[in-house]
Amino acid sequence: SQQGEEDPQALSIQEGENATMNCSYKTSINNLQWYRQNSGRGLVHLILIRSNEREKHSGRLRVTLDTSKKSSSLLITASRAADTASYFCATGKGGSEKLVFGKGMKLTVNP
Amino acid sequence: NAGVMQNPRHLVRRRGQEARLRCSPMKGHSHVYWYRQLPEEGLKFMVYLQKENIIDESGMPKERFSAEFPKEGPSILRIQQVVRGDSAAYFCASSPPYDRAGYGYTFGSGTRLTVV
What we know:
The complex is a heterodimer of chains A (about 110) and B (about 120).
Chain A: E1 5-7, E2 10-14, E3 19-24, E4 31-37, E5 43-50, E6 55-58, E7 61-66, E8 71-76, E9 85-92, E10 99-101, E11 105-110
Parallel strand pairs in A: 2-11
Antiparallel strand pairs in A: 1-3, 3-8, 4-5, 4-9, 6-7, 7-8, 9-10, 9-11
Chain B: E1 5-7, E2 10-13, E3 19-24, E4 31-37, E5 43-50, E6 53-56, E7 65-68, E8 75-79, E9 88-95, E10 106-107, E11 111-115
Parallel strand pairs in B: 2-11
Antiparallel strand pairs in B: 1-3, 3-8, 4-5, 4-9, 5-6, 7-8, 9-10, 9-11
């Protein structure tokens, strides 16, 4: 299985602090994606990083990928209360094949 | 440009009844994926379809579950003779033929099925 596993499973921080979430996976991948899910809602795609990329930025998000360690990290800088959500990593083999999701990590940003 | 539309948002069924969940992908997206999410858990892949074709159904239970994506109309996930264990949120996602833009999937808001 190439299921991603997020670490930690839950994180509580104060507004303005940075939040770092880690994801590990087991098999070779073509890309790794991060999604956010607010309570009771669908998933929103945040960022995709391909296997030949090491780092990617999007606004306050920074994603790294280390294929040798089969791991990725998502950094949210200057967190806001609105960032409170569950975050999932998902791995894909490429093309339009299925994504395999981890169990998710719950982030709470306290105002 | 409407996103992925799922209906109904909430569905209550008695044990033994049938549940039909609908998903209309984003305009221009020809690939549809169904996922199931149990409370406090991640998403489990069920099935991947293109128009009139099931590409990968490795996550579908062998019995009672079926999916289709006809030439016209939405994709349908059908659960026959529902049991309490089928209670979950079912999400549909769509993607274009090739994810060259790197936008990932677009998810619908899900259908929350409750079996009583």
